[in-house]
Amino acid sequence: MTRWLLWILGGVLLGGIVHFVTVLALPRTATQDAYTRLSSLAPPNTVAVLPQPTPQAAVLPAMDPAFAVAVCRYDLSSGPLKLSIAVSQAYTAVSFYTLRGVAFYAINDRAAGRRVIELDLMTEEQRSALPEDVEVTAADRLIVESPSETGLILFRALATEPSLLPAAQQTVAAGKCTELPQQRS
Are 99 and 64 part of one and the same domain? Predict the structure, then answer.
């Protein structure tokens, strides 16, 4: 009897280890991650509106049909980016993700407290290279540091009713993701 229990315990332990290793390895070996799937829809450093999800198809998993969504695939290798989006009637949010899909920053219209969400996205090295004059370090300038040079920015606007979806789509389509002019130090 104890012999069978040892075999069962060994099998469960081995199965648990295999399961754990597989779950940790899959995200690193997946070839169709969000960044890759969006490469055909959105060139780097430009905003592209994603098609509305249907029950049969969605560009990204778990997309809510009540939200209009636009994406910017950012590449900071040539310099920092300036993002701006006007807030919609109901709710507007901007989320930042690394190339591996890890969220590292998010802001919504209520947190911004303005009619326009504006911020600068740069790497730690680019931020440390900024000149230290008063104009650059103004208190109202929001700077977000990206942990990687590439990643995704999602702009979302809520349509509280189906008839408001075109207005929400116009809001996210008007979002901007442009390179900042090179600053002299």
Answer: yes
